[in-house]
Write a structure and sequence with these properties.
The chain has 1 helix and 5 strands. By secondary structure, it is α+β, with helices and mostly antiparallel strands.
């Protein structure tokens, strides 16, 4: 049996080089990466917003349980 990558204590973060932000010109959330940008639908934007908020909150904690999210290909 293989080990689980994520568990209840895991806090996912975006991979290095990726940035999540609200883009007023697009009127939606976007995921920026070195080669371009992905315009996110409302559900994807909400999911990454929650991931981003949890990552920011956990940055100050003493436990470092962060694992990078898989890069989009």
């Amino acid at each position: 049996m293989t080990d689980r990558i994520f568990n209840a204590d895991t806090i996912p973060v975006l991979a290095l080089g990726y940035r999540f932000q609200w883009e007023p010109a697009q009127d939606c959330y976007v995921l920026l990466y070195p080669e371009g940008m992905v315009k996110l639908n409302p559900a994807a934007g909400e999911i990454l917003k929650r991931v981003s908020e949890k990552s920011k909150l956990s940055a100050s904690s003493s436990l470092n349980l962060k694992k990078p999210l898989m890069a989009l290909t």
